[in-house]
Write a structure and sequence with these properties.
This protein is of the alpha/beta class and 446 residues long. It has helices at 20-29, 34-38, 41-70, 85-94, 96-107, 131-148, 164-172, 184-187, 211-218, 233-243, 267-280, 289-295, 326-336, 339-345, 348-356, 360-364, 371-380, 386-415, and strands at residues 2-10, 79-83, 111-113, 154-156, 177-181, 196-198, 205-209, 247-253, 284-286, 301-302. Helix content is 47%, strand content 10%.
């Protein structure tokens, strides 16, 4: 019997304010907070509401119907969801009924929630180590526990970013498994349809995404030039049945349904028909990641050194979607190098804002790749060009560095030992306070 694990990644970024460089003085005069100045929440609400109408609401309704209608069958439909904190934050703010729908789904017992980074960030790629990554994963675990009363056991990093060090960090947090990409160059002669262990860990098991079968839905479903168009649920179930193995992980963005492929393409009909098509196949059944991990032994070990970090992004399936060109690398390095100053300041609001800036999307929009990756990056970007994305991020980060400089100086000054009274034999000369230099960028003056 081959287990089918269907997993949806659910994330919506909090986009930056493109007019920040031009409206900074006016917004300061109006008394707006840094959050209001840095982020375009009018645009964020508009996009979230649009996607909610086209994708989230109908897809959650269909999933709920499929789970409930099959609950008494011998092959109940099951699904896993990896939700970023940014999605839940905006859902609670703009479309609170979505959270209630998700709670009802989880309560069925046939839906598994996955761990992740709260901010859908690139924290696992920081050159300063994985402490910040671990903090964000803990924050996400706490969020899922608070909202759903659910303990996550399987982890899904931002865009399936993975290496051995990430696996060790995830294991230290109590996770049992990780979802990542089943790359041909990684597996060589092996198949992604088996469970593997993670090199350097004792207990972590890896579920590898079958990128061909996943992308048949995510990218090719409505492609009229595709030789297999149109794709029916029956045809797809036949492919799954012939693939074999212990497990087939089908993982896509949830926006595949209704947003990337509109309703008139038949994508919702495909989803509705898929459970019945799978049920008719004698060698297929649905499972959650935890069920597969607990019942299936590893067929070997997967070794991914840090210098060969993988992801599911673009054709390269590495980290070049976010850290490739000089704009991306400079921006990410500057942001990471603020970490020791953020920790020293130790202010919850400042830390939250810094983490908002770590969203992978900000760097994704700066990509200058050509070909098919360029089309995908441009589709998601709210900017006219990668240069505009960089200019916006650069201006906001520069402003933020200045604020951090001021706060850091105040904290250090408050912790400095009190100067003893001047001696009666000499008069101590006043000291000029040292200037703070933001990491990698100029000199800050008050």
């Amino acid at each position: 019997m081959t287990n089918i694990v269907l997993s949806f990644e659910i994330h919506q970024p909090r986009r930056l304010n493109r007019l920040f460089p031009y409206e900074r003085v006016k917004r300061i005069a109006a008394g707006e907070s840094l959050i209001d100045r840095y982020f375009d929440d009018k645009l964020n609400k508009e996009i979230f509401s649009r996607v909610s109408k086209k994708c989230y609401n109908p897809t959650f309704d269909i999933l709920s119907e499929l789970v409930k209608n099959s609950s008494s069958s011998d092959k109940p439909f099951k699904v896993s969801l990896g939700m970023s904190g940014m999605f839940l934050y905006q859902a609670a703010l703009y479309e609170p009924q979505l959270v209630e729908k998700l709670k009802s789904l989880v309560a069925t017992g046939n839906v598994e929630l996955l761990g992740g980074t709260y901010y859908h960030s690139l924290a696992s790629l920081s050159s300063l180590g994985l402490n910040e990554f671990i903090a964000q994963v803990k924050e996400h675990k706490d969020l899922i526990k608070q909202v759903f009363g659910y303990e996550v056991r399987v982890f899904e990093n931002t865009e399936y970013i993975y290496n051995n060090e990430i696996a060790r960090a995830v294991e230290s947090l109590g996770f049992q498994g990780i979802l990542t990409e089943g790359l041909t160059r990684l597996l060589e002669w092996r198949s992604p349809t088996y469970i593997y262990s993670a090199v350097g860990t004792e207990n972590i098991k890896l579920l590898l995404r079958h990128f061909v079968l996943s992308d048949d839905i995510a990218f090719r479903f409505s492609l009229r030039t595709w030789s297999e168009y149109p794709l029916s649920a029956e045809k797809y179930a036949t492919w799954l049945s012939k693939t074999g193995g212990d497990v087939i992980l089908i993982a896509v963005d949830i926006e595949t349904f209704g947003e990337h492929h509109w309703a008139d393409t038949g994508i919702f009909d495909f989803l509705k028909a898929l459970p019945d098509a799978v049920a008719k196949a004698g060698n297929l059944s649905w499972a959650t990641p935890s069920e597969v991990i607990s019942s299936t032994p590893a067929s070997g070990a997967i070794n991914v050194p840090k210098e060969k970090t993988i992801s599911w992004a673009d054709v390269e399936k590495d980290c070049t979607a976010w850290i490739d060109n000089s704009m991306q690398r400079i921006s990410f390095d500057r942001l990471c190098r603020l970490e020791p100053y953020i920790k020293e300041i130790n202010d919850a609001g400042v830390t939250k804002l810094w983490r908002f800036l770590q969203q992978s999307d900000h760097f994704y929009y700066m990509s200058t790749k050509g070909g098919s990756p360029e089309a995908v990056h441009s589709y998601f970007s709210p900017y006219s060009s990668p240069a505009e994305a960089f200019a916006t991020f650069d201006s906001i980060l520069s402003d933020f560095e200045g604020k951090i400089g001021t706060l850091y100086y105040r904290v250090k000054k408050s912790k400095a030992p009190t100067t003893p009274p001047p001696s009666t034999t000499f008069q101590r000369q006043p000291q000029t306070p040292p200037r703070y230099t933001p990491p990698g960028y100029g000199t800050y003056t008050k």
